[in-house]
Amino acid sequence: MAQLYFYYSAMNAGKSTALLQSSYNYQERGMRTLVYTAEIDNRFGSGKVSSRIGLSSPAKLYNESTQLFDDIRDEHNRDAVHCVLVDECQFLTRDQVLALSDVVDELDIPVLCYGLRTDFQGELFGGSQYLLAWSDKLVELKTICFCGRKASMVLRLDQEGRPYNQGAQVVIGGNERYVSVCRKHYKEALQKGTLEGIQSV
Ligand SMILES: [Zn+2]
């Protein structure tokens, strides 16, 4: 039986690398994969999933109005699909997560979703909320804070590198940066308004 997987983490834990490796493993065995990524994230140019270590794959773009079940079923009828992989899955809508669960249950195709669990304010992303609720398998991809603990939080830094937790959940093309830290240092950085003096501890 196929299953719905949610691979989640903070930023920079190698999610895209893990996705590309899984896709490659299928293809190596002569199986066909479908890769999707969110239209909202065009850091690397459209229609592509790229990892920071230089791997990449063509991808279909989805936005909030994409009918994922219909799209995948049509592709599957044309030429059998053995696995669906979704990058930046935090941007999926509730209906799209439901549609992906239908792909698993009705078409019997495994669906592997990769994305962030929470935003820079520590709130669940919409897609992640329903993936946490409905996935068969939850897999945490770990990355570490500068202190060596597991980094589970995403800190937003302004142009001057000061942590802040205001503004829209997603800013594309802005000057802010994000850094993954442990919960203790997330709180401490916001309290002090700086990472300085914390990082050296
Ligand atoms: Zn830490």
Automatic annotation (TrEMBL):
InterPro entries linked: P-loop_NTPase, Thymidine_kinase, Thymidine_kinase_CS
UniProt key word Phosphoprotein: no
Binding locations of substrate: V170, V171, I172, G173, Y178
A GO cellular-component term linked to this record: cytosol
Top-rank taxon: Bacteria
EC number(s) on file: 2.7.1.21
UniProt similarity note: Belongs to the thymidine kinase family.
Protein name: Thymidine kinase
